Amino acid sequence: MASFRTIHRSFAEQVERQPDKALFELPDGRNITYRETDRTVRRIAARLVAAGVVPGDRVAMQVEKSPEAIALYLATLRIGGVFLPLNTAYTGAEMEYFIGDARPRVLVCAPERLTDHAHRTGEGLVVETLGTAGDGTLLDGDEILDASGRHEEVPDASDRHEEDFDASDRHEEDFDASDRHEEDFDASDRHEKDFDASADDPAAILYTSGTTGRSKGAVLSHGNLASNCRALLDAWRFTAEDRLIHALPIFHVHGLFVAANMALTAGASLYFLPKFDADTVIDLLPRATVLMGVPTFYTRLLKNDRLTPGACASMRLFVSGSAPLLASDHASFEARTGHAILERYGMTETGMNTTNPYDGGPRKPGTVGMPLPGTEIRVVDGGTGRALPDGEVGSIEVRGPNVFTGYWQMPEKTASEFRADGFFITGDLGRIDEDGYLCIVGRGKDLVISGGYNIYPKEIEELLDAHPEVLESAVIGVPHPDFGETVVAVVVPAPGERPQERELLDFLTADLARFKHPRAVRVVEELPRNVMGKVQKAELRKRYRDLFTDVDA
Ligand code: MCA
Ligand code: AMP
Asked: What is the mean pLDDT of the chain?
């Protein structure tokens, strides 16, 4: 395999190239430069090394969005750690599972949540804190660096490697994850100081429920992140001149491995917002060039009268993904602003797979475009794996340097989600249209996507079924004007019981992040089933599809 350049090394190059450029522009008016960010990266890296992190160790983070949280990500990569970001909405029970499964060496939590996690310290785990005001134990003691701002155990940004990636000799096969290396990762014979990842080394674990059951950690390699970022930079013509409005959370692929990675490696600037707010975004549009968001961003922007062509004068690109963008929103947005939103398709396990064209072709509403260079997409008969002719609906499968290395400590599950020829079975259903564009028409997997967050019905059903007044339940997604889809629970009472909606929702609180809570509970006598006894969720979705159509988003 030819050489490649990791995300952290590309960032380091930007530090050298333009140290005084603002990387982060914050709502309070503060700017943080590339050089300042690099210093924070080194500080945190030194602290992680002091906590005992060696290559391959997981570093988990559940903190609010901040520039320091991005520095923590880069620091983890720089010392060979495996970054594990967790949704800030996860509750105690959910955190228990992730920490038990991933066994991180370090957990970084918000200072105010230290007491929730303090008891974990000791069993091979160090708990650190990181706040949003430059506070937290992770940033304690600048003296951890020497007078020149360095630490002997932390590789310096400017350490150059022979094997640096040269864009001019890049080939698709450069990133073939299946093509293993002599120098394959071996934690025992690595010294942190020398750490420079090879393409197959793990860089991050992101939890996703995949098609069924408990959350699984998708292990993404340095090659996955770097190759996908490179492909997107090229596809979307993203450069150091760009000023990106970053309003996404940084614990998912979209906000971290698409938006942040692209800016950090291109040498661009980020308007770094703690969360999405339509007015704030519209205030920033006249100074920005790119926005990346989930469809809910666009639905909400369209409701705002201040969204005008003038407000978008400096913008060159609006990107949507993580959930289907309504064709009607696409059309309204173009009519209002003159910009055709560019829709793309990705997954936690694969990063980005396809994109509508930046130029050279129309951005077609209701489609997710064509495969990124180096990535192959096919539509097959889900049962037999036989390729289907264009136009026919089938199972979407993907192969390429972007596809993850496997689920954390689940070799059998990993094997079952791949075909023998290396294609990954996405669980999405689609067809290729007459122009070669992929259209996603549904999901084979039982999944609800609410405001870009994935919610797995099974997780909620298992909790509801454990309620003493519930015999069984079925959880479905129904259309919602703001979130795209929202969760409805359909419940059959245990004999003689009459469970109340409020009581059932309260029952979920300790175990389930708020965004996963059903927005409605319906109590029924029985669930519709087919002859095989399988619950007919399609029938339930039909029955309740109008529950939220009149809700004012
Ligand atoms: C917040 N709430 C939600 C959601 N977000 N409920 C359902 N679905 C949601 N997405 C709940 C909160 O718990 C709270 O409940 C209430 O709504 C308001 O919370 P708030 O924080 O104010 O919500 P918001 O700011 O309005 O957030 C909505 C949002 C946000 C902007 C759409 O959810 C968001 O940024 N989503 C992006 C998710 C994302 O990055 N997905 C990418 C995954 P209560 O008031 O009852 O307590 S990566 C991926 O999918 C792949 C790889 C890909 O292709 O990108
Ligand atoms: P996640 O598991 O969070 O990575 O979510 C990935 C899933 O989001 C995909 O398998 C799709 O079902 C869905 N998804 C992502 N982007 C799009 C899109 N542009 N249109 C429709 N569905 C999408």
From this structure: 91
Lookup: tokens for 288: 């920005």
The pLDDT value recorded for residue 237 is: 98
Residue 436 has pLDDT above 80, yes or no: yes
Helix intervals (H) in 18-91: 34-50, 67-78
Contacts of 236 (CB under 8 A, 6+ apart): 262, 290, 317, 319, 342, 355, 358
CB neighbour list of residue 224: distance below 8 Å, 6 or more residues apart: 175, 177, 203, 351, 401, 402, 403, 404, 405
**Domain that includes residue 512, residue range:** 447-543
User: Which of ligand 1's atoms lies nearest the C-alpha of 276?
Assistant: 31
For the CA atoms of the chain, what is the radius of gyration?
A: 23
Q: Is there a domain that residue 267 lies in?
A: no
CATH of the domain at 496: 3.30.300.30
Return the ∠ at Cα 54 (arms to 48 and 56), rounded to 5°.
115
Number of domains in the chain: 1
pTM: 0.92
Kindly report the protein residue whose alpha carbon is nearest to atom 16 of ligand 2. Answer: 322
pLDDT at 157: 60
How many Å lie between the centroid of ligand 2 and the Cα of residue 352?
A: 10
The per-residue pLDDT for 165 is 35
Band of the pLDDT at 176, cuts 50, 70, 90?
A: very low
32 forms bridges with which residues in the sheet? 24
Please tell me the number of the ligand nearest to residue 518's CA.
Answer: 1
Residue 522 in domain: yes
318 within a domain of the structure (yes/no): no
Q: Predicted confidence band at 209 (pLDDT cuts at 50, 70, 90)?
A: confident
Question: Given this model, what pLDDT does residue 531 score?
Answer: 85
For residue 452, the CA-to-ligand 1 centroid distance in Å is 7
Q: Measured from the CB, is residue 355 less than 6 Å from ligand 2?
A: no
Measure 171 CA to ligand 2 centroid, in angstroms: 27
Distance 213 CA to ligand 1 centre (A): 22
Which residue is closest in CA terms to ligand 2's atom 8? 322
Residue 195 included in any domain = no
Reduced to 3 states (helix: H, G, I; strand: E, B; else coil), residue 313 is coil
List, chain by chain if needed, residues with CB within 6 Å of any ligand 1 atom: 248-249, 252-255, 275-276, 294, 296, 321-322, 346-348, 450-453, 483, 514-515
CA separation for the pair 161, 167 (Å, rounded): 15
**Residue 301: closest CA among 270, 280, 322, 287:** 280
The pLDDT score that the predictor gives to residue 122 is: 78
CA distances from 78 to 8, 163, 251 (A): 6, 16, 18
